[in-house]
Amino acid sequence: MRLISRIGQWFDQRLQLAAPVREAAEHRVPRNTASWWYVFGSAALTVFCLQLVTGILLALTYVPSAAEAWSSLQALNHDITLGWFIRALHGWGSNFMVAIVLIHMVQVFLFGAYKFPRELTWIIGVFLLLMTLGMAFTGQVMRFDQDAYWGLGIGASMASRVPFAGPAIVRLMLGGPIIAGATLSRFFALHVFVIPGLLIGFVCLHVLMVFKLGINEWPMPGRIVKRSTYLNEYHEQTKTDGAPFVPYAIWKDMFFAAFILLAVAACALWFGPFGPSGRPDPTVIQTVPKPDYFFLWLYALLSLLPASMETPVLLIGPVLAILGLLLLPFLSGEGEKSWKRRPIAVLTVMLIAVTLGTFTHLAEYTPWSPEMNAWSGDPVPATFLRRTTALERQGAIVFQVKQCRNCHALGGSGGQRGPALDRVAVRLTQDQLIRQVIQGGGNMPAYGKNLSPPETTALVAFLETLHPAGQAPARDAARAFALGQ
Amino acid sequence: MPSDTSLSRRGLFTKLAALFNGLVAAAIAVPIGGFLLSSITRGRGNGYLKWVSLGPAAQFPEGETRLATFRNPLVMPADGKTVDTACWVRRVEGNQFQVFAVNCAHLGCPVRWFPQSGLFMCPCHGGVYYRDGSRASGPPERGLFEYQYKVENGLIAIQAGEMPTPGAPSASLIREAPPCA
């Protein structure tokens, strides 16, 4: 033992780190912050460390070349011992990290932790969130498969809409005129060098400030933050009702960190690694590209926005959102901290959560996209063909062959781009059906040039049979008069 | 001791050293900037575009639309399959063609041709186009991107080399909109 302590002294005489480390560990924190609500920041840091380690492990095998990346991922999945598990840890770690960073952000927002004197801690946190999302997107590119390839195309198409500089930004982003080797190489540099380097630096600053300024005390309703008095009040609280961070508060952080690591490992073990999906071959166009989970809401937003709103929302929306987050501590740097006295803050969080959740849910089944294989995959249910004439059955064939099914569901299967047609005859008269088929309208293409008159007649005859048994189809009351019958 | 306003020898050297560092940094920044921006400058004046052959025009039957592939004119060593590009070739009649980029004019996903209904459909956000490339429905604000083409000695060639995007359709000398809707 004496030998160990002498070796320790030898090092500390030269490093002189023991005293500041002890001081940081034993600094006094308000007792009420030793709460399970205060564990998300350290959990995010823990997952970040996991990402660093697993990322370096993956780099031992991964080849950042457009020609080899996909094959090297296959080798990791199938050939290299436990390569699949390291990939799964890294992939699930990424999902957990985004989720924990978001939860951490909501928690510090609702606890008013961004107020004086912790404004800069919040601002750096906003940058950390952006970098985390940047890592998530560039990481999806590293999994160089069909989704990554077409995802880059979508990113480039968005960037191209920036006024004046758009085309130049696209070439800069892609490293050339098309998505190719240079594109993967520069996203690799971003994912492995640039963003992690910045992240490490900003995380250090973020944590340093938490130590220097002290952890945000548990917000009590009615205890108002004032610039003139806050520092003294906080200091007083840590004195009268404080305890050393180690061991009073840290054990909860440690338990939660271990729990999160266990959860990541369990997901990795149970669900396995993400992809890669098909080979990134641009000549294979039978693909339905989809972004990773945390960008699904954006995917939905891009499908549902009116065309005229899209570019402004895409270009101005993120700027406003980031500006709003950065300005938040300056707009409300003082005042009430407790969420119990900040209804607008609570409502804002709920509104954003419900919006993102709804968009994400929609993007999981993409009702706006044609179902590319519905016309050849989902047969017209037999119930719709019972007691039909030859003409109506011919219409059912036209309905199927002309890919109507890709956008219109029948009997619960088919696309959801257009309305389901199970009861369309109740809504539209014969003339209206003919007009809609030939001229299109709403969101429907015009089929006039692609249907012969007999095909149209048969199709409309079939559509007219689509009504519930006890309900008469829609009729134009004036039709008989107009035709002189 | 010199007064605060006067410049000491060491103070002068420090300032000169800072100036010297600034000059060297600026000098090095020029080639670094040139390197970083090379993918922009290289393509200036449509420098990325070349005529690329799609093979004999006879392989495209009149009145039909077929998928064709070509190799991007600019190839780097690590590109692998990514330089192989697809396009939709529609032979209207005789030597009159339309060659469409597979990239949807909305956000670039690959559109698929359905000959039975005469429509191009996009799997991502639901864009649909007619057989002549004009917009039929969905979020795209315009028709499909079209390549310039020429038919010589029975071979069809297109001017290609840059991925068309909604903000830069003309960067590839691609026509703004199909001739007729």
What does this entry show, briefly?
The complex is a heterodimer of chains A (485) and B (181). Chain A has 485 residues and is mainly alpha-helical.
Classification by helices and strands of chain B:
alpha+beta
**Strand-residue fraction of chain B?**
25-35%
Spatial strand order of the main sheet of chain A? 1-3
Q: Which segments of chain B are poorly predicted (pLDDT under 50) over 5 or more consecutive residues? A: 171-181
The CATH architecture of the largest domain in chain A comes to Up-down Bundle
Oligomer: heterodimer
Largest sheet of chain B, in brief, is:
4 strands, antiparallel
Give the overall silhouette of chain A: elongated
Number of helices of chain A: 21
Global morphology of chain B: elongated
Please give the CATH architecture of the largest domain in chain B. Answer: 3-layer Sandwich
CATH class category label of the largest domain in chain B: Mainly Beta
Strand elements of chain A, count: 4
Helical fraction of chain A: 55-70%
How many domains, in number, for the residues of chain B? 2
Would you tell me which CATH topology of the largest domain in chain B applies? Rieske Iron-sulfur Protein
